[in-house]
Inverse folding.
């Protein structure tokens, strides 16, 4: 029996890419997995695919991270059905890139609301349930951009940097309550989005990475699985772990 059997794992932004791979990793470990996406159609498509690949029943719930009431209802729906949340993985996020002088207030606010405020809301609503059981694992997915910054992504960088500071604060507040909180900062990862980049841009990215290749979504999922473990990672909290092939060192 897997150590994640009967554990309830929530993975936001999990209809594709890194989030989907994380959800699949936990489903393969026989966990009770809840995925989310921006629409019911995307959720159902990912749910069906994930159930076929893992052989495990999956719950899928649409989520709008910019909507406070929707975030609250999302967590309440999970608690009502599953009675608990053992692991919360905040992976969902958006980008609205632009140079700062051209960036609209809407582009700034939309990214901050979704990527940072949404993370805050889900943690807030989940932690009160984790506190009752004096156990929980929270993993927030940041980005190497939140550490290094990037031209044309000041809104995204600010949100992802905010997640790192937010994570460290949660870790300090709840360290004695059986709850750990860590963040993963991926670098350049192979996803459907990066596959559409021009060949020259992909070549330039690879040349900038010391290991001379992009990472895989599975690399991030493997770390998430470790950080979510009850025993192996119990002494790790407040950390921002980079998975970037040595890009930032």
């Amino acid at each position: 029996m897997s150590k994640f059997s009967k554990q309830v794992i929530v993975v936001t932004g999990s209809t594709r890419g890194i989030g989907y791979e994380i959800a699949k990793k936990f489903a393969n470990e026989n966990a009770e997995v809840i995925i989310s996406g921006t629409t019911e159609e995307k959720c159902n498509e990912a749910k069906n695919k994930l159930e076929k690949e893992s052989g495990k029943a999956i719950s899928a719930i649409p989520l709008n991270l910019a909507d406070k009431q929707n975030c609250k209802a999302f967590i309440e729906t999970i608690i009502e059905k599953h009675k608990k949340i053992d692991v919360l993985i905040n992976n969902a996020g958006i980008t609205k890139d632009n140079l700062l002088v051209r960036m609209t207030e809407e582009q700034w606010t939309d990214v901050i609301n979704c990527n940072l405020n949404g993370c805050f809301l889900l943690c807030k609503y989940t932690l009160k349930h984790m506190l009752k059981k004096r156990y929980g694992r929270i993993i927030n997915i940041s980005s190497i951009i939140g550490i290094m910054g990037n031209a044309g992504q000041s809104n995204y960088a600010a949100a992802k940097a905010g997640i790192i500071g937010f994570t460290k604060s949660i870790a300090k507040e709840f360290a004695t309550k059986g709850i750990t909180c860590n963040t993963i900062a991926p670098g350049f990862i192979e996803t459907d989005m990066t596959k559409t980049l021009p060949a020259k841009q992909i070549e330039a990215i690879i040349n900038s990475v010391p290991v001379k290749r992009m990472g895989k979504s599975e690399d991030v999922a493997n770390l998430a699985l470790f950080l979510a473990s009850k025993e192996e990672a119990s002494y790790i909290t407040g950390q921002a772990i980079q998975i970037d092939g040595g890009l930032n060192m």
Q: What stands out?
A: The longest helix spans residues 105-133. The CA atoms of residues 140 and 241 lie 11 Å apart. The first strand starts at residue 8 and ends at 11.
